[in-house]
Amino acid sequence: MIKLIALNNKEFISELSNRLNYTIKDTSDLVQLVTAAMIEQLQAGNIVSIQGFGSFEVKKKMERILVNPVTKKRLLIPPKLVLTFKPSTLLKEKFK
Amino acid sequence: MNDKITLQDIINLLVQRQNIARKDAEAFVKAMFDLIEEVLESERYVKVKGLGVFKLTEVESRKSVNVNTGERFEIQGHSKISFTPDSVVRDLINKPFSHFETVTLNEGLIFDDTFEGIEADSNKLDEEVENSETFIAFEEMKNLSGKVEDEKKELELNRIISSSTEARVEVPQKIADEKLEYGKKLKTEETGENGIKLNKADTKVRKGWYVILILLCICVLVGYKLYNVNEVEPVSKILDARAIDPEPSLQPIPSKLLKRDTLIFDTIRSMKGDNVSIRKEFVGNKDSVRRKAALPMETLSAQVEYNIVGVLQNHTISGGETLRKISLRYYGSKELFTYIVQYNSDIIKNPDNVPIGTVIKIPKLKQK
Fold first, then answer.
1. How far is CA B68 from the centre of its chain?
2. B165 falls in which pLDDT band (50, 70, 90)?
3. CATH class (in words) of the domain with range B7-96
4. Which residues of B fall within a CB distance of 8 Å from A5?
5. Chain A contacts in chain B segment 296-335 (CB below 8 A)
6. Does B113 touch chain A (CB under 8 A)?
7. CATH code of domain B295-367
């Protein structure tokens, strides 16, 4: 399974490089740059929205108490920030 | 913070950092997301390194009921896009909170205490602060009762009681505010990361409530103690006064005030003898007001229009005075204050709030 995922990423990069006539290295570098820029913006608390695709947003999850059903132990889960993706309506409709 | 960043901004950033032509950068980013979309369609699964995994998941068709009509219908099965961020990305995003750890709670721990579990060391500091704050509470109560003493001169028992109860409420609130702020400071100092502020706010609020509760308890305790100390005062006096007290339900007068209250009761007792004295004073006051009102020329009617002809006199606004009152005094009509406002438009910025000590010119009015 893990292998398949890795392969998929490679496939994605190679497909992209084919289309744009870039070398594979350049393509992967560029992809990295784009994602890095996006994450930077997200870390600053901004919403990154990509037209026709969707928007990425960082959301805060409150701390909560979880009870392990087996041991009955109570655990306090700390608050955390998670990255969420909301597909645009266009994209949603497409896959419906 | 919380700005919406579009693809264009990302492209701009890319252009700035790398020496890529804008056109190329634009084409690249667009192609990238288009490809994600395409691959997602054909393979139902895309992994982008440094971002995460996009996946199509099936949603089975299920039965539902139309809320409005009560009709049964079936929601068709469809695919949904799910996104799971890369573990690297997840950690990066959660960086401000990364120092938190899942804590196992002990048996019988109350929910409120769980916060202390995390910030055990800050707790000690808090306790110290609490002690010093009780002291502040003392000081403030003294101040407030001092104020009350001034009011006492007005010989209004009602007001004393109500204001003293107000004071009681005010004290814990003030302190609670201070405490909240202090708590905030403490936290930011402790973590040394300003970025977390927003997320900690909720915890702070809860803590704030907790603190308010504690302070209330302290206030009640202190009040009770002082009450006991003052118990030496003859109870009969107090009881006597209670009889006159229009609101006997407002029973526990803050202990600090008790001494003074008995004083007031004394005066009230003496007043009981000649009950009229207050009224006399009242009437006297009214008389003086009337005399003042009569002092200017004749009473002007508010129904007619006037022209302003020169200055009647200068007037310094003192506490409790309103422009309407001044108008009543000089013209015999409250409605004519508009002329004062108009004439002093350069001095009076807001007719609803003229600062004490402002010198205004009272215009002389002549009927049109």
1. 42
2. very low
3. few secondary structures
4. 47, 53
5. none
6. no
7. 3.10.350.10
**Which residues touch B152 (CB under 8 Å, ≥6 apart)?**
B160, B260, B263, B264
CB A13 within 8 A of CB A28: yes
Tokens of B170: 């005010």
- Find out whether A56 and A42 touch, Cβ atoms under 8 Å: yes
* Rounded Cα distance, B164 and B256, in Å: 10
CA distance to partner chain B, nearest, from residue A2 (Å)? 11
DSSP class of residue B319 equals: T
Give the model's pLDDT for residue B117. 42
List every span in chain B annotated with CATH 4.10.520.10. 7-96
pLDDT at residue B306, rounded to an integer? 78
All structural domains of chain A: 1-46 (no CATH), 47-96 (4.10.520.10)
CA distance B286 to B186: 56
* A chain contacts of residue B2, beta-carbon cutoff 8 Å: 45-47
Q: Minimal Cα–Cα distance from B11 to chain A, Å?
A: 8
Which residue type is seen at B354? V
Question: How many angstroms separate the CA atoms of A62 and B32, rounded?
Answer: 34
Residues of chain B with CATH 3.10.350.10: 295-367
pLDDT tens digits along B290-304: 444 444 455 677 777
What is the Cα–Cα distance from B352 to B349, expressed in whole angstroms? 9
For B244-266, the pLDDT digits (tens) are: 444 444 444 444 444 444 444 44
- List residues bridging with B56 in a β-sheet: B81
